[in-house]
Amino acid sequence: MLFRMKKKALILIETRIDKTDNQTLKFINYLTKKFSGIFTFDILCFGNQNKTEKLSNNYNIEVVHCIQGVDDDQFKLYTKELSEVICQIAPDIIFARSNYLVEEILGTVSVYANYKFYGGISSLNYDDDCLCVEKNILNNCYTVSKRLALDEEKKIITVGNNIWNNSEIKATLPDESNLNHANIELYTFAPKNKLISVGTYANSNDFNNSRLIVSGGKGLQSSHGFNQLIELKEIIDCEIGASRAAVDSEIASKNRQIGQTGQTVQPEVYLALGISGATQHIAGILGSKIIIAVNKDRQANIFNYSDYGIVADVSDFLNEFIKQLSN
Ligand SMILES: Cc1cc2nc3c(=O)[nH]c(=O)nc-3n(C[C@H](O)[C@H](O)[C@H](O)COP(=O)(O)OP(=O)(O)OC[C@H]3O[C@@H](n4cnc5c(N)ncnc54)[C@H](O)[C@@H]3O)c2cc1C
Which of 13, 232, 256, 283 could form an S-S bond across to 45 if both were Cys, CB 3.0 to 4.6 Å? Predict the structure, then answer.
């Protein structure tokens, strides 16, 4: 009888392991169930190693490689170190969820570690020693497909949420009681001095073609707030904008600024989060069909221009909004 050696797959989780959300767990569940006959699975993550036990015991993960000493915002600074760890683990294939940050990081890793990069894949199947991948292009008007022979070059594949959400594989979340001893490898990256904000990662934007623009102001407080906007963008089709105060505080890049000295926008819906509604900002959004504002200050001027107003802490609002959309 002829046995085919399983290939080694590595699943990269880009958020801290203690923040792992249901979508990430569904992603791991999908891959490990669907391709269990072809791959063995390791996970690469960062954060608290205790949390990794859940993953390793519930999804048949061989080894959880856990990087310590790096915070979410800093991960992009470590692509070289990450590439070295990946070369050490030597997977045949790396899977990750598709988003801006991951694609920037893994795009760089693919160069350092010599992997072929396939980003934003919308369908993934196995047939006759090949992975069959599909990608939707040109605003989902066309689909291109390709067969990737497993024995050929090493690959990085990032996939969209729709793959596991539309799959027949039942999504299971970890069973808290099923915690044995996990096989964990620890790596430590020395912290670097320079912090860069997540808001500056996404440099391309397309305000003209966006039906929904979600803009963050100084009320988002830090780049973590913009991190949530990037998370939101993965779930719904929207573009991310910013007020000048957010840009000046370096939590968003200049090309996201909307207003008198930024860009003028006319989306179907403009969602203003933690923006006070200064006249210079309002000047850029008056062409929007519907304006919705979230601000903790009931008196904020933005409510004078809004069709709908929500008096709330913007972070609480985003947590709940993302949770509802993800479900
Ligand atoms: C010549 C000139 C040109 C300008 N051009 C522009 C421009 O193009 N675009 C632009 O945006 N601005 C422009 N400005 C700046 C503008 O005047 C304002 O300073 C800026 O728009 C304020 O941004 P903001 O609303 O994010 O910040 P802030 O005015 O500081 O408001 C922050 C808001 O967040 C709310 N908030 C705080 N914490 C929370 C929370 N946890 N939850 C919910 N809400 C919270 C607060 O209640 C507040 O309303 C210009 C100014 C000048 C002088």
Answer: 13
